[in-house]
Amino acid sequence: MGLFLQLLTRGLITGSFYALLGVSWGIIYNTTRTFHFAHGFIYTLTAYVILVLVGMSFPLVPSLLLGLLAAILAGCGVEYFAYLPMREKNAAQLSVFLTAMGIMIAGQSLIHLIFGPDSKPLAGFPENVISLGMITFTTIDLFTVVLSWIVIVLLFAFLARTKAGMMIRAVASNPEKATFIGIDSRKIFVLVFGIGSLLAGIAAFLATLDKPANPNIGLGALLISFITVFLGGVGSLGGAVLGGMILGMAESLVIIVLPTEYKTVVTFFILFLVILIKPEGLMGKKST
User: Fold this and answer.
1) What are the distances in angstroms from CA 47 to CA 39, 43, 138?
2) Were 95 and a residue from 80, 91, 115, 277 both cysteine, which residue would form a disulfide, CB within 3.0 to 4.6 Å?
3) Residue 116 phi/psi, 5° resolution?
4) What gap in Å lies between CA 231 and CA 283, rounded to an integer?
5) Do the Cβ atoms of 182 and 192 come closer than 8 Å?
6) Which domains does the chain have, with CATH numbers?
7) pLDDT tens readout for residues 156-174
């Protein structure tokens, strides 16, 4: 029972983080239908901006804020200078995808070239062990869960209660009709890239607090991001949250019966199973 409760707690921590990753990519994909492969580069870029600033003796909080600013600027820049011109020229989706993949590969290669392949830890956040009966976790774990859910709740409140949020939902549900009623989809696309990149930056910060960063961390984050979106259902941010929690719990609890290295296999098996039974995802709607 002690092992089960410990793994369940670990699943909650991992699932909360995965849910944050899912909504960070989901809000971009659901609104723009752009397979934003460069999301992984922005994730890596944020981690390294924070690491560099902390390494230059900047306090952690200002370093985080500047890192998040870099994430927003990078995300908006990719949309405005790369994706938008291609859309205006009616480029094929494959061309956009290859452009995004090129940005991802080139960006991570540049980080690798400048900083080397070694993993770099992020210092400055107090890490203490907390024990509650048979359950043990750290202050970083607790901070990850709390901050992830605060950010997710704020995102849903923003989308539901603000004018900008309603415009994002309008463009996501029907771009043509949104344009007809006077919504500039180009500005909305830039906005969602900024929001999604901000969330990815927060996730990168949390991940780097827990484990040292390396130039390849963005690829794993990207993989989890779009798996949670397609598992939960395209078009449903709530589905991305659910998908993240399911993946986190499954990856943790599978250790009871399988070795740790099978976590990735379990992730793809769950995605395959859901797509086979419910192709639109757990909370997705069937296309008509």
Assistant:
1) 13, 7, 21
2) 91
3) 85, 175
4) 9
5) no
6) 2-116+136-277 (1.10.3470)
7) 999 999 999 999 999 998 8
